[in-house]
Design a protein that fits this description.
β1 and β2 form a beta hairpin. 27% of the residues lie in helices and 24% in strands. Strands 1-2-4-3-7-8-9-10 form an 8-stranded mixed beta sheet. A two-stranded antiparallel ribbon has the order 5-6. The N and C termini lie far apart (44 Å). By secondary structure, it is of the alpha/beta class.
Length: 262
């Protein structure tokens, strides 16, 4: 593990301990198994869930610090948002938090360091999915095969590594999603045409010294150039934890759930 990755892991582990008091017991534990694919996940069903009804489905991808096998850490950032009582009543939905294994990565980005030792991300155009991404795509399709999943209201979002993974899922399955959010993520702008029809809300911190805000801006600018729907929010004083500000946006979930596949 590179030193920068180790530092990130420690920082997120500390954050996880601080958030450990949060009760996530309402999220059921699940395990996707198919041949060589294995992926743990937590799933939150709507209150008064009726399997005869159809519900929107939200998939949320965590960052690198929440990787592991405990099937718990992935809920640290974002898990609390979907437990909000008022939001659960207003937007009854199925919410899924998969957990990426410790030594894997959602997207097939390559890591390089510049002369100063700072991490640089080399996002790929195309290419084979990582093992975690392959399992994730299988898990998503498996859940959407359930009769209570509304295929016209499927959403995906993520932060940091998960924001990068969000863009990759979109380019691999662009017709699957009604809308998406990416927080402090990034992608190769050559991939934008693949998911240009998916409404996006992109967030980033202006002082992010882990994942450059330029990476999100490039995606937003490219979407605007080709005339497609995109919202871009830059929190000028936020560092890497811009997800705190994004989760506090009163229009975040109303915007997300307002979209349906055409």
């Amino acid at each position: 593990m590179k030193p920068s990755h180790l530092i990130l892991t420690v920082l997120f582990a500390v954050a996880g301990l601080r958030a450990g008091a949060q009760d996530f017991s309402k999220y059921d534990k699940g395990l996707y198994l198919n041949k060589k694919d294995t992926l743990a996940y937590r799933i939150l069903f709507p209150e008064n869930f009726n399997p005869q009804q159809k519900y929107p489905v939200v998939f949320f991808l965590h960052g690198s610090g929440e990787r592991g096998s405990d099937n718990q850490k992935q809920l640290v950032h974002g898990g609390k948002l979907f437990l909000n009582k008022d939001l659960r009543k207003k937007f009854p939905a199925i919410v899924v938090f998969p957990q990426c294994p410790e030594k894997d990565f959602w997207s097939n980005v390559q890591f390089n360091q510049d002369k100063t030792g700072k991490e640089r991300f080399n996002f790929q155009k195309g290419g084979k999915p990582t093992k975690a991404m392959h399992a994730l795509l299988g898990m998503i399709k498996n859940i959407l095969d359930k009769p209570y999943a509304d295929r016209n209201q499927v959403y995906i979002g993520g932060l940091s590594m998960g924001g990068m993974g969000t863009f990759e899922v979109l380019r691999r399955e662009p017709k699957m999603f009604a809308a998406a959010i990416s927080i402090c993520g990034g992608d190769n702008i050559a991939n934008v045409n693949r998911y240009k029809k998916v409404p996006l809300w992109i967030f980033h911190g202006g002082k992010d010294d882990v994942v450059s805000p330029e990476l999100s801006k490039e995606i937003a600018d490219q979407m605007k150039i080709i005339g497609k729907e995109v919202k871009y929010t830059l929190y000028a004083d936020d560092n890497h934890n811009s997800w705190d500000s994004a989760f506090a946006e009163p229009q975040l979930l109303p915007w997300l759930f307002s979209h349906k596949k055409k």
